[in-house]
Each structure stands twice: as structure tokens, then as C-alpha cells.
Design a protein that fits this description.
alpha+beta; 7 strands; 34% helix; Protein kinase domain-containing protein; Kinase-like_dom_sf; 3-stranded antiparallel beta sheet
């Protein structure tokens, strides 16, 4: 039972770490447009997460990403601004594609519309994604 739990944890950690690395790769590819399309990335790294189980010490380094908070209102989309929002989303998708990042899960719940303090669309309009459903191409080969 214990060995099975450790194997399950190790498998989960590998998947988690891979997603972390993919997210950092996306930020790296989008660095020239990060300020326009993604929340600002302040820092990233690993926290030491050592713990003991049955007198054995396990080392686990938990990855973290610290990024800017974006104010969002789920009810902001109205008939009057749908065209503006869609036009901006297409511009953002085009920039992702230029960096060979293919988004495979585009839906409203993966979009954050950054609002200015007055509740209007801010100049920084962001597309925040669930990065688990993407493909990254290099040399015209999807990975």
C-alpha cells in the first residue's frame, strides 16, 4: 500500500512539474507580448517541501509562479462590447500562433478581461488559459 501511494505521488508530481515547465515555456515564448496578453510574471521557482513519512525523509520541491492579480467581472460581457472583446481575442490568438503556441481549449471560462478601476476595459486585456490543453510547435512539429 505504501509503495503504491509513493508511486502514485511520484506520477502526479511528474505531471504537475511538466505543466509547470510548459507554463514557463509559454511565458518565455510570449515575453515580448506578455505585458499585453498575460498577467505580469513577477518570479518563479521551487519551494523546499521536505516531509517525513514513517521515519523516512522525502524531498519535494514545489514549483510556484507569482503573477499579477487581474480584476475580473464575470458579468462584464454585454451585447455592446462583444465585438470589441472578440476582436481583441483574435489578436491575442494570432500572437500566440506566431509563437507556435496552439490553444486547444478556448472558452469563456479561460478568458480574463482585465478591467480598469472605473469598470471599463483596461488597455491591458488578458487571455488567461488553462495551459494543460495546448500544443507547442517547434520547427513545424507539434509537441
Amino acid at each position: 500500500m505504501r509503495k503504491n501511494a509513493i508511486q502514485t505521488f511520484e506520477s502526479f508530481y511528474k505531471i504537475y512539474l511538466k505543466k509547470f515547465i510548459i507554463e514557463l515555456e509559454i511565458y518565455n515564448r510570449m515575453k515580448d507580448n506578455q505585458a499585453k496578453f498575460l498577467p505580469k510574471l513577477f518570479c518563479h521557482g521551487f519551494l523546499d517541501g521536505s516531509h517525513t513519512f514513517n521515519t523516512k525523509v522525502y524531498k519535494m520541491f514545489r514549483p510556484f509562479i507569482l503573477m499579477e492579480y487581474l480584476k475580473h467581472d464575470k458579468n462584464f460581457i454585454k451585447n455592446g462590447n462583444v465585438k470589441e472583446i472578440l476582436a481583441k481575442e483574435l489578436e491575442i490568438l494570432e500572437e500566440f500562433h506566431k509563437q507556435n503556441v496552439i490553444l486547444e481549449d478556448i472558452k469563456l471560462s479561460n478568458i480574463i478581461i482585465n478591467l480598469a478601476s472605473n469598470g471599463e476595459l483596461s488597455k491591458k486585456f488578458s487571455l488567461i488559459l488553462d495551459f494543460s490543453n495546448i500544443s507547442m510547435a517547434s520547427n513545424n512539429i507539434l509537441s
